[in-house]
Amino acid sequence: MKLLNVFLATSALTLFAGQANAVDLEFYFPVAVGGAAADTIQSLTEEYVANNPDVSIDAIYTGSYADTTTKAITAVRGGNAPQLIISLSTDMYTFIDEDMIVAWDNYVTEEEQEDWIGGFYPAFMANSQTEGKTWGIPFQRSTPVLYWNKEAFEEAGLDPDAAPANWDEMVEMGKKLTVKDDSGNVTQWGVHIPSSGFPSWLWTGIVAGNGGKLADDTGKNVTFNSEAAVGALEALVALSAEDAVMAPGILDWGGTPKAFFEGQAAMIWTTTGNLTNVRTNAPFDFGVGFLPGLKQNGAPTGGGNFYLLKGSTEEELQAAADFVKWATAPEQAAKWTIATGYVAPRPDVWETETMKEYVSDFPQALVARDQLDYAVAELSTFEGPKVTQLLNSALESAITGQTAPKEALDGAQAEADAILSAYR
Amino acid sequence: MNSRTWIHAWLMLLPAFVFLIAFTHLPAITTVIDSFWTTAKGRRPAVFTGLGNYEKMLADPVFLKAMINSAIYAAITIPASMALALAMALLVHWSFRGVGFIRMAFFTPTVLPLIAVANIWLFFYAPGFGLIDQIRLFFGLPSANYVGQPDTALYAVAAVTIWKEAGFFMIFYLAALQTIPQSLREAAAIEGCGRWTFFRRVTLPLIMPTTLFVSVNAVINAFRLVDHVFVMTKGGPDSATMLLLYYIFETGFRFWDTAYAAALTVVLIVILSIAGIGQFFLADRRVHYK
Fold first, then answer.
1. How far is A367 from chain B (nearest CA, A)?
2. In this predicted model, what pLDDT tens digit does every residue of A143-196 receive, in sequence order?
3. Which residues of B touch chain A, with CB atoms under 8 Å apart?
4. Alpha helices of A178-255 — where are they, by DSSP H?
5. CA B42/CA B147 separation, integer angstroms
6. ipTM, two decimals
7. Is the pTM of this model over 0.90?
């Protein structure tokens, strides 16, 4: 019987090896930023297939991150899962809960475990590892930074080359940068921190800057109402309510770069994914700096990871893993970063000639990398979307002045505990 | 009829039947069944809970908020879009220079995809540099953040719906107005009847069938049109623009609580059925078909 199996396996292998494409892989990828991202993924896969004739990869564009997660979950439930997807790093617990991903550890050698998995920035791995295993490989990752309008700084009598070093400085500068017309209406705000849809992302950075942490690495415990968190929300609310340096209400993400270009806001907080956009469209000189922190530097990370999905043969998954190893290798990752503006996820990428050339021409790109030393994981838990949503609602309620920060966060903590208790 | 004709008839109907059953009736039945179970996760199978999901709704503040919001949203958008549609139709059903251009202008919002419309309106509403704020600043009014404040966000979203729908309903009213015979108008003129009386006693009753049709559509759309919520507010701030259908989407495809989403869907279907049937029964008495 055993002999027969060996015979069958060998003949199957020879049969497959005889064909041009022994392994057919499917790969879902989202595009969250405009422009070259989709083309770059296509050309990367084509280059890999050209050099590895025994593999064929069908890279399928699947819309936004949310669409990609939806399609992947549907495909898995339908028994037709792709081998590889890119989706939000924060979806890790959702995927584990759905029992639809496999850890990368089985597909790497001990050496690669150290050189490859160990070679990513720890800030990015924080959203990629739990239960002692690695579930995601960082790829299209980003972090928010502060952009400032140098012309507006000059007009306000500030040093155009100095970003605010901390929160208090940002507020002080913001007061000088807030300009009113004769009838008392504001024509330029000092600061603009977008809050539509997912205020929790940037707020995570403010909390980190205040020395706090929102979740642990089991995905089962959150601390929304710690002293640091409440302080961070009070500071954010005060920007409009007391300091009067930011427009009141919920500020839209999409309109944020536009508000910056139009001179409506002198400093904005937004993702590094907008670097190329701002560089192309800002009609003035601009600077890029760390997010100003209340006590220390702090920022969240965001963006997407590679995941390996269950439901395929070991050979297929191994081939998919090998492709990812190649795609995240320095040369390829450098190409990807330059085309999209995403932060290169490994220190060795920045050592390549291509990257060195790029940053000498565009030193602002380095700010995001240097900020990674202070970056924390984006909020990620079991029932992640639900827990994040209830936190977002609480934050929105505080930002719009309906609920006091402490009260809003206490409520969110209680609701989150009710959901997460099922997992403890 | 002989059996051959029967078989023929069934064969002709078969393709439509297959699609109707596969994509409408079966999903509707499974939705009702799923609403009595918990959501299956990879590590935990589904458990029968009976009315558990429905009991959960009564204690779910977001669901209650969504119900109230949907009611307000319907109460604003249905009458406003219908009244505007009728007014626009009355305006352009005469022939004068440039009437074609005005009709086209009124109808344009209908042709645009709602997602595109929402993006345009987002910039109308943008505080500081948006169209509305520029007008406000011109008159010396302070800047306003319509979609970013919980007390105005729902109305800001409803305004987009009205703008989008009125042109579509106008087409139906326009067609109805064109069918009113000229002789009635002449007879009324001879009788010395004023324009308002003519409108109230002749025009309005004659276009009642159209009004019924339009109102059924308006009710359905009041629950169905939520595309712009995705772009403009994502249900926020703090659930201020959470509508029932958007909540179903969020529960089903972002929270992956498909069983609860199924129960919410059943509620939506019940509401729509009652509204639809009620409209036909109640309004039928006051509608004169020829």
1. 29
2. 999 999 999 999 999 999 999 999 999 999 999 999 988 877 888 999 999 998
3. 41-43, 62, 119, 122-123, 126-129, 137, 140-143, 145, 147-150, 233-234, 236-239, 250, 253-257
4. 200-209, 227-241
5. 38
6. 0.73
7. no
